[in-house]
Amino acid sequence: MTKTGQVTAARRKGSQTRADIQQAALSLFTERGYDATSMREIAEQLGITKAALYYHFDSKEAIVLSLFQENMRALDDLLDWAASQPLTPDLRSEFLGRWIDQSARQGLRTMRFAVANHAALRAVMPPRQGGPVERIGRAAQVLLGPDAPLTDLLHVRMALLSVHNAVVAAQGTDATDDDILALATRAATLLVGDLFPAPRLPAPE
Asked: Which residues bind DNA (predicted)?
């Protein structure tokens, strides 16, 4: 392997280790609680040393922040894509479907953590502008335009929150990720039914 190939492979391995740490931490935070989980336990869950863990994240707070920052970047990418397209019924349907799919497939475990550790999350996340609520507002503008009636605006905002609401509703049940996605899609469809076509989810990869 060339030196360039070795560097690329090392970066890929490092990126995968980082993702593994995030997912292991999320599982432990959700199952045991954020405050009750230590960095040592996260390392043990993965079978790595604490030094290896601290190479990627210097604290539990850093892990949580990285997860939410990545989710926000993914939503920003989706919003930028939609803003560059002509506003048509098909765009509205595709955008809402992609938003729901992205929330479920990429952010579902993060949402479960947030629901289970609400107080801890508020302490970890610094107050700032430009969080999920701001992005929901931008998404509603993409779907409706700037002068939409309040009732329509609230319906669309509720549709954009459908995955979060489905996660809350599923607490204490045996609902799977697919169950939550189906519930969220159905709820969003009912909410926007009089405004534009039902959300169209991307085809499974």
From this structure: 38-57
